[in-house]
TrEMBL record:
Record domain EF-hand: where: 68-103
Listed name of the protein: CALU protein
Pfam family name, one: EF-hand_5
GO cellular component terms given for this protein: endoplasmic reticulum membrane; extracellular region; Golgi apparatus; melanosome; sarcoplasmic reticulum lumen
Compartments, record wording: Endoplasmic reticulum membrane; Golgi apparatus; Melanosome; Sarcoplasmic reticulum lumen
Protein family per UniProt: Belongs to the CREC family.
A single MF term (Gene Ontology): calcium ion binding
Leader sequence residues: 1-18
Principal location listed in the UniProt entry: endoplasmic reticulum
InterPro entries: EF-hand-dom_pair, EF_Hand_1_Ca_BS, EF_hand_dom
Keywords: Calcium, Endoplasmic reticulum, Glycoprotein, Golgi apparatus, Membrane, Metal-binding, Repeat, Sarcoplasmic reticulum, Secreted, Signal
Species of the source: Upupa epops
Lineage of the organism: Eukaryota, Metazoa, Chordata, Craniata, Vertebrata
Amino acid sequence: MTVPQLLLCLSLSMLCISSKPTEKKDRVHHEPQLSDKVHDDAQNFDYDHDAFLGADEAKTFDQLTPEESKERLGKIVGKIDEDKDGFITIEELKAWIKFAQKRWIYEDVERQWKGHDLNEDGLISWDEYKNATYGYIL
């Protein structure tokens, strides 16, 4: 091996050793957050309330007295307990949280639709969309 070849080989070796690894990409699909509130059980339970009840229902519960809140939660627990055995399993709780989140999404879509369907014909034209979204003026 000649000196230039040796220097080239040594340079390439040093380059490989000193180079930084490529940035690791996260290939995990993360579930969306159940609430936009901070999840810190040491401070408050707002995140859990939103996840369990849905954002709108959680706001309603915030306005109730402790007695009314307990009564309504008792009714909800009856709905969560799908097999009516008096206990709530993790799967039943997961199904309830998914149900509550989907319900909120569907209700929000309905509100948005009504806000954009200005002539209430069940269809949203481009002009209706521009007007509702951007305040389109001719």
